Automatic annotation (TrEMBL):
Ranges that cross the membrane: 28-50, 314-333
GO molecular function: catalytic activity
Lineage: Bacteria, Pseudomonadati, Pseudomonadota, Betaproteobacteria, Neisseriales
Keywords, alphabetical: Cell membrane, Membrane, Transmembrane, Transmembrane helix
Organism, scientific name: Aquitalea palustris
Protein name (database record): Diguanylate cyclase
Length: 551
């Protein structure tokens, strides 16, 4: 193909024919083709040896994130169920009639009524006196009544006035692995007069099912629930590990780090000497942590398959690439060949000496156009980053940084022109209930609705900023001598704007707003002004909320 531009050269030229083969080897196409084939071969060899490492590294990151997501899901499920049991037990302890502590039979009937209306403590409820002796239980378990539980950690902790999740053990009365927890029973003087304990079998339905029945992969992958405080495995998806002691230090490096407080993911070697991908996530309510495990042999099984496929594909690709590259390069460089042939004919006098035609779209023009497009995108991204840096992403309001700049400007202008500046620090009342009951999405929607209401009562020259979770700051500038009265009127408008309930989904929520008001003085700084308004807001909070307090 490189000989095309010599096709029109007369064979009678004694210097042309012998140079044909040399020109083929000296051709830019031949050199590029040899270079490309060499690069492809070198790249294929390098890829074969390096693909395993890089693929394993990338796959390791993906698998660790996957394990971390699975462990987080299981940990949240366990944490919710334990928190439900703690809350229920504390509530029952506060409702327990104290006079029944001296009447075991009536106390058992009371326990029976509570047991019928809850399913969390399927192992039963029992009450212990100040000596740790069980005085009543339900359902009645043989040998539980009159037995002393003073040696149990959860009984001792409850007698000291603390709700406590006990060490998972084989229950004395039930004879199966159970999780005990206890809550103190206080009298009116907040003195402990007894202990209410609840028992949950570790195998009870709806408790640890998600962990015990789940399996990751096809081999020995799964979940493990660990109690570092008690130095034992609480439960596991692998049979035979429940209530077993943890391995000694030095056997499993990632486990040792988890015992020291590390939470995350990594690749480690387990007690059986097998390499595995593991992730550790805390269960906050109990101090436990969940471990999601997957053997490396399963996690990285595709690495070997990909390496074999890659080397086979590289051989085929090299051949096809060489053919395709030859055709493409000839097509791309064909105008250059024609130009070179015309120039050579001109040197031999076969064509007149005229300018060569330019038959191409200038690459410089393309480059400049591409550069201009890139520059335009960079400006757009810079503007977007500037907005993100100075505005709250949820509500679109100025953030603390932009508020500080505008406060500095407002204070400087007020001193220059003799105007007044007022600052309103606002904190929502009842917002935590929306977050806790409906979730963060509903909380975010509530914040956007509050923002819309507040903006509707403000002037265009005022600045409304969000500086915290449910904290807003309103900056009023260019006020005259009636600044305090104007600020009071604006604050009352804000209070009135929050009177209608917020409708989120199918429910309505009543939010209030506590407002702290302060006026700038000659010595005011943005920090001092913000602190004064904050203090006034806290006075409004302590006054019952949904009101205005002036500093």
């Amino acid at each position: 193909m490189p000989a095309v531009y010599t096709a029109n050269i007369k064979s009678t030229d004694p210097e042309v024919a012998p140079m044909t083969l040399r020109r083929i080897f000296d051709s830019i196409i031949t050199r590029l083709l040899i270079l490309v084939v060499c690069l492809v071969c070198i790249g294929s060899l390098a890829r074969y040896y390096a693909l395993g490492h890089f693929l394993r590294q990338d796959l390791s990151t993906v698998m660790q994130e996957q394990q971390l997501a699975l462990a987080s899901y299981v940990a949240r499920d366990i944490d919710d169920k334990i928190s439900q049991r703690q809350t229920l037990l504390t509530h029952l302890a506060s409702d327990l009639p104290q006079q029944l502590l001296q009447r075991p039979e009536q106390l058992r009937q009371w326990l029976r009524q509570q047991y019928q209306y809850q399913s969390l403590f399927s192992g039963g409820l029992f009450v212990a006196d100040l000596h740790g002796r069980a005085i009543a239980d339900y359902p009645v378990a043989p040998g539980r009544a009159e037995r002393s539980y003073i040696e149990r950690d959860y009984i001792r902790a409850a007698l000291q006035g603390n709700s406590y999740i006990g060490r998972p053990v084989i229950g004395q009365a039930l004879g199966i692995p159970v999780l005990p927890m206890a809550a103190p029973v206080f009298n009116r003087d907040m003195q402990v007069v007894g202990v209410l304990a609840g028992i949950t079998p570790l195998t009870s339905g709806g408790f640890l099912d998600l962990l015990q029945k789940a399996q990751i992969g096809h081999d020995s992958g799964g979940f493990v629930l660990v109690s570092p405080r008690d130095n034992l495995f609480v439960a596991s998806s692998q049979k035979g590990m429940s209530l077993k002691k943890l391995p000694a230090s030095g056997i499993n490096p990632l486990h040792d780090r988890a015992m020291a407080g590390y939470r995350g993911s990594g690749i480690t070697t387990n007690a059986d000497g097998q390499e595995e991908v593991a992730a550790i996530v805390s269960v906050p309510s109990s101090g436990w942590f969940v471990v999601a495990r997957l053997p490396s042999s399963e996690a990285f099984a595709t690495v070997g398959h990909v390496q074999t496929f890659a080397i086979r594909g590289a051989i085929v690709a090299t051949v096809l690439f060489a053919l395709l590259a030859s055709a493409c390069m000839y097509y791309v460089l064909r105008p250059l060949f024609h130009a070179a042939a015309d120039a050579e004919r001109m040197t031999r006098g076969e064509l007149p000496l005229v300018p060569l035609a330019i038959r191409r779209n200038d690459e410089v023009g393309h480059f400049i156009a591409a550069f201009n497009r890139l520059l335009r995108k960079l400006h757009e991204q810079q503007a977007q980053l500037e907005r993100i840096a100075h505005h709250d992403t949820l509500t679109g309001l100025p953030n603390r940084l932009l508020l500080a700049d505008r406060m500095k400007l407002a204070l400087a202008q007020s001193r220059r022109h003799g105007k007044h500046v007022a600052l309103l620090f606002m904190d929502l009342d009842g917002f935590k209930h929306i977050n806790d009951s409906q979730g963060h999405d509903a909380g975010d929607e509530a914040l956007r609705m509050v923002t819309s209401r507040l903006l509707a009562v403000l002037r265009e020259t005022d600045t409304l900023a969000r500086i915290g979770g449910d904290e807003f700051v309103l900056l009023l500038c260019d006020l005259d001598e009636q600044a305090r009265e104007v600020a009071r009127i604006v604050a009352e408008k804000c209070l009135a704007a929050m009177q209608p309930p917020l409708r989120i989904g199918t429910e309505e929520f009543q939010l209030g707003i506590s407002i702290g008001l302060t006026l700038a003085t000659a010595d005011s700084t943005p920090d001092s002004l913000l602190q004064e308004a904050d203090q006034a807001m806290y006075l409004a909070k302590h006054a019952g909320g949904n009101c205005l307090m002036r500093n």
